[in-house]
Amino acid sequence: MAGFIARPGKAMTAEATRIRLTRRPAHELCVQDFLVEQVTVKAPCQGEVLLRARYLSLDPYLARRMCSWDGPQAGAIVGRMIAEVTHSASPHFHNGDIVFAEAPWQDRLVLDAAGLRRVDVTGIAASAWLGVLGSSGITAWAGVRKIIAPRAGETLVVSAASGPVGSVAGQLARLAGARVIGIAGGAEKCRYVREHLRFDACVDHRGSDFPAALAAATPDGIDALFENVGANTLDPVLQRMNKGGRVALCGLFQHYQDENPVCLKHFRNLLDKAIRVQGFHVSDYAAEFDAAASELASCLRSDTLRHSETVTDGIRNAPQAFIDMLAGRGTGKHLVRVG
């Protein structure tokens, strides 16, 4: 096996680069919370495969795990990746297979083959299986198709509309005939949402009077909300919700790095307007992953669904890339291209 060293009386080993936390973050994550280190990887045993990471997925939910010092072991960062099988000791995988894995941030590693899923990269970039065809896209599909179920002519609002989940959610709602209003931070992101993603409008939550701008963009009120952020976007939308409105609560990005109370001035509208709020996780819809990915792939090939990626090269740059993602820099799916 390339890169492995054989020593008399010992198992073959190779070196790998790994990123882990050095401490529990005090508040907001910084690069000093991370450590880049070299670790030893042993050759795969029966039923295992040796992987070369190709892409790491940078996802907001990881911040919550990091800040709580949560995970399989303290300091470990276990996220989603796309990798290539470089040596297989499993009958179910072959060298060169491209797989999806939940694994440590590491450029080479050995995993149990039972936890891997082969992905089809025929005519589709491998990275798409971490974004539009992966958990991000399927989360959007579940929230729109299974929870909100938008009807033609309804007004639907999507927060974090330039992100990997919100961007797909809004486009799926438009395909269902809804009028879709995005919320994003800054003029450049709003322009991207309107022009590239083809939303009907986009409101800048950093503007001088966000509630007034939202009201102007939703003259007939709001029938449904796909919420990714938290109180800063949820509260002004609740003020505009129509009776019987639906909220798919996908994430609380704004609140992942603190334990402060989530305060809503317009909370009583949930009762007064009979608004239904449903939180959900993508894993709730595991049985429908294949069907969702197939539908999303078809939309992608026909250009009825668009996406973008913010890609950082090199695993050593993963900590800064992750912090940049949390700060809202870039659009679409955030990834680290390992090699």
TrEMBL record:
Domain Enoyl reductase (ER) intervals: 31-336
UniProt-listed Gene3D superfamilies: Medium-chain alcohol dehydrogenases, catalytic domain, NAD(P)-binding Rossmann-like Domain
Family annotation (CDD domains): PGDH
Molecular function in Gene Ontology: oxidoreductase activity, acting on the CH-CH group of donors, NAD or NADP as acceptor
Record key words, sorted: Oxidoreductase
Domain of life from the UniProt record: Bacteria
Annotated signal peptide: none
Oxidoreductase among keywords: yes
InterPro entries, sorted: ADH-like_C, ADH_N_2, ER, GroES-like_sf, MDR_fam, NAD(P)-bd_dom_sf
Name of the protein in its database record: NADP-dependent oxidoreductase
Organism: Noviherbaspirillum saxi
